[in-house]
Write a structure and sequence with these properties.
The complex is a heterodimer of chains A (96) and B (539). Chain A is mainly α. Chain A has one domain. Chain A is 77% helix and 0% strand. Chain A is built from three helices and no strands. Chain A is rod-shaped and about 140 Å long. Chain B is an alpha+beta fold and 539 residues long. Chain B folds into three domains: 91 residues, Penicillin-binding protein 2a (Domain 2); 72 residues, Alpha-Beta Plaits, CATH 3.30.70; 321 residues, Beta-lactamase, CATH 3.40.710. Chain B is elongated. The longest helix of chain B is centred in the first third of the chain and has 27 residues. In chain B, strand 2 and strand 3 form a beta hairpin. In chain B, the strands form eight sheets. In chain B, strands 2, 3, 4, 5 and 10 form a five-stranded mixed β-sheet that branches. Chain B has a five-stranded antiparallel β-sheet with strand order 12-11-23-22-21, sandwiched between helices. Chain B has 16 helices and 23 strands. The chains are: A mainly alpha (96), B alpha+beta (539). The interface between A and B is medium-sized, with 15 and 18 residues.
Chain lengths: 96, 539
């Protein structure tokens, strides 16, 4: 027959086992959550990287001399004026 | 009591059948376990292990100022997989506003594209729905921000492979290596595990070119304007930085829009074409004659009205009587150039062209780059030698000629020009420093008093040479009414300078000479480039 001390020890051990098992479950959940989080962050990082490249490209395209010239011509009407053709009328003929 | 007959035939038959059955089953068990084991294991794996290829992102091509010239954009496309029912499809449609109506009968029976180019928010919304029978697929698309300005140089990537230009020549660097992912499926082919990386994806590396997109813009813009104004068909412009040995711009017209799937590929005329360039080769011959001290650069030479070489008579449009070698270059005298070539001799002339890099591979890696061609013989007639002296009988690519002219700006040292920022520039002395200086003076005279007056740039010193040649038509020789007008110039005439080559093919108006068409184009490009690069006026 088990004495009181043995019962106590067994209870403590059982408690420890249960506690550790619960901790393990908790930790595995936590690891899983962190893993998913890391994966999400990686996806987000890739997306940001891609967005950054798109923005850099857009920035350079918008600020390119070709675009500036296009806007100057189309929006601001900064087109070099062509030489005007001046017709000099013969005043003598008018008098006659 | 009935006696049991152990030799009953039925009992024997059953026992025999049993024994054979046991043998057959045992044989099958052994054969399955040993002989077919590998095959069956593989067949089993095929049914529950699936592999997926992961395409790497293609590297970006940047210019010298980190302006993207070719970028790979990642696009996310939404697909409905087999089994996605109508309810879920309608929920998806509401959540991410799918525009196209798709007719389904109960559920999807095959993989169907629902929406192209998902945004980040749309992806999050889809993930929050936790639907099984959908898939977000990654698609890479190549984008060229400068479009037709630089298309013949950069080329393009299409139909899963690089097809032209830098994209093709540096494909192994840009493309990276495919990766592989493994995942498990159940009997219904539903994915039951997270993907496991089997082969790591190696992303494509970025490359940085020495090209300056602003100078490229000027080169292309003025080239197109000149071609339109002169009703010409084609043209090319090259801009080299003499001091650093870097290529700043390579423009070629006609061009194409690489972003358009229905593009019509146009060749890069600066790199893959070699042709007779005519008088622009005279300074190359002049520099060697001065280097070899065959002529004094400022001593007068008699220029006869007609130079008879066998059956050929060489004449100049004007009567000069006497010219110095520098003036021969300045006025582009055919008779004078012939006399220099005849005095220099075939061997010297030939070796001189070789040492300037003609008929040799160019220093940059470009698909189908032209080497040029010289019809090298044991001996040549005086007529052939004279024509070599004024630029006929030798095919040179614009790239080779521009690199050769930069030798004069670099005090007689020829550089192997680079297109990639990381590359090294090698150099080699070709002519003496004094010869290079005299050649620069001759080139300056071309603009001051000679055929290239229209190449004058306000505020800057410059030197250059005009060239006008009859274009050859395949099978018909030289065409009387087809011309190629060229100008190669160096500006400013100081330690830090640019070499600019311009060429216009088949001008349609009455003006067709290098001095009339190409020289003004040189001046426009040079002026804009020098101002942009912050050069200080020296004239």
């Amino acid at each position: 027959m088990m004495n009181k001390l043995q019962y106590t020890l067994l209870s403590i051990m059982l408690f420890l086992v249960c506690f550790l098992a619960l901790e393990q479950i908790k930790l595995s959940f936590e690891i899983n959550r962190l893993h998913t989080n890391q994966e999400n962050l990686h996806v987000e990082y890739q997306n940001f990287k891609d967005s950054n490249l798109k923005l850099i490209t857009q920035f350079h395209t918008e600020n390119s001399p070709a675009m500036i010239e296009k806007q100057a011509k189309e929006d601001l009407g900064m087109v070099k004026q062509k030489a005007k053709k001046i017709i000099i009328e013969n005043h003598k003929d008018e008098k006659n | 009591m009935k006696k049991i007959n152990f030799l009953n035939w039925r009992l024997i038959l059953i026992c025999t059948c049993l024994v054979f059955s046991i043998i057959a089953v045992s044989y099958k068990v052994i054969s399955v376990q040993i002989e077919d084991s590998l095959f069956l294991k593989n067949e089993g794996k095929k049914r529950y292990i699936k592999y997926r290829t992961i395409n790497p992102v293609r590297g970006t091509i940047y210019d010298r100022n980190n302006t993207p010239l070719a970028v790979s954009i990642i696009n996310y496309d939404l697909y409905a997989l087999n089994g996605l029912n109508t309810d879920r499809y309608l929920k998806l449609k509401d959540a991410i506003s799918i525009q196209d109506d798709i007719l389904i009968d109960g559920s999807f029976s095959q993989k169907t594209l629902l929406k192209k180019g998902l945004t980040l928010d749309e992806q999050k919304t889809i993930n929050e729905l936790h639907f099984n029978n959908i898939e977000i697929e990654i698609r890479h698309s190549r984008h060229y921000p400068l479009g037709d300005q630089i298309a013949p140089l950069i080329g393009f990537y299409g139909k899963d492979r690089a097809q032209e230009g830098i994209e093709k020549s540096y494909d192994s660097v840009l493309s990276g290596k495919n990766g592989k992912q493994k995942y498990y499926t159940n009997a219904k082919q539903k994915i039951i595990s997270k993907p496991i990386e089997v082969i790591k994806t190696i992303q494509g590396q970025d490359i940085q070119l020495t090209i300056d997109s602003t100078i490229q813009f000027y080169a292309y813009k003025y080239l197109v304007e000149a071609i339109t104004n002169n009703k010409a068909k084609a043209g090319t412009v090259l801009v080299f930085d003499n001091k650093s040995g870097e290529i700043l711009a390579i423009a070629s017209y006609p061009s194409y829009n690489p972003n358009n799937p229905k593009r019509e590929i146009q060749k890069n005329r600066a790199l893959i074409e070699a042709y007779e360039l005519g008088s622009v080769l005279k300074p190359i011959v002049f520099s060697k004659a001065i280097d070899k001290k065959i002529f004094s650069p400022d001593a007068h030479i008699e220029i006869p009205r007609r130079l008879e070489l066998g059956n050929t008579i060489i004449t100049d449009p004007k009567i000069y009587e006497k010219l110095t070698p520098k003036e021969i270059v300045a006025y582009s005298s055919q008779v004078g150039a012939s006399k220099i070539a005849l005095k220099l001799g075939y061997e010297e002339l030939k070796n001189n062209y070789y040492s300037f890099g003609f008929t040799k591979p160019i220093s940059i890696n470009f698909p189908s780059a032209a080497f040029g061609l010289m019809n090298a013989k044991e001996t040549v007639s005086d007529r052939e030698l004279a024509s070599l002296g004024y630029g006929y009988g030798l095919k040179v690519s614009p790239f080779q000629l521009t690199a050769a002219y930069s030798t004069f700006a670099n005090n007689g040292i020829r550089k192997e020009f680079k297109l990639l920022m990381n590359d090294e520039v090698t150099s080699q002395r070709v002519i003496s420093e004094s010869s290079a200086r005299h050649t620069l003076e001759a080139l300056q005279k071309v603009v001051k008093i000679g055929t290239g007056k229209k190449a004058d740039i306000v505020g800057f010193t410059e030197g250059g040479k005009t060239g006008t040649v009859h274009r050859t038509v395949s099978g018909a020789g030289y065409a009387d009414d087809l011309y190629r007008a060229s100008f190669v110039g160096i500006t400013p005439l100081s330690e830090d300078s640019l070499t600019i080559f311009v060429s216009i093919e088949d001008p349609g108006l009455n003006a067709y000479s290098g001095g009339m068409i190409a020289a003004p184009l040189f001046a426009e490009i040079a002026e804009s480039s020098l101002n942009y690069l912050g050069f200080i006026e020296d004239e």
